[in-house]
Amino acid sequence: MKKPHLEIERKFLVEKLPRSLRQYPHKEIAQGYLVADRSQGHVRVRRAGRICTLTFKRGPARFREEREIPLTPAQFAVLWPATAGSRLTKTRYYVPFQKLTVEIDIYRGSNEGLMVAEVEFPDPETYHSFRPPTWLGDEVTGANRYSNVKLARD
Questions:
Q1: Which CATH fold topology does 6-153 show?
Q2: Where are the alpha helices (DSSP H) in 37-90?
């Protein structure tokens, strides 16, 4: 049996944006949740630039199972109406740091002004040894208040 993909990630508030943020690659993201259940996991659809995906996640925020499949824009358009009431929009910047990428999300809509950064790790050792850059603030990994599911419903 194939081992499921494991997402290993930490989340931080952004204390101060890095200089020249706009020089880094970025995408406008619209995502909505089809299913969001703490015990069973969640299923979301996302459009990031021209890329559309359907993603299933299950488990605690730090180390969780993640499965993602590509969607055509037409498939995304069919599923998107089912996410009404559970959506969010944000701009995601991809900032290199050491050998990793810090993904900075700047939210819009009802979450306007919120800035959160996520760092995904290749293994648990890198996760545990990571020291964030000084422009990141408090770690909020696993804090319900900052989960995208919660933000999409507020």
A1: Hypothetical Protein Pfu-838710-001 (2.40.320)
A2: 73-79
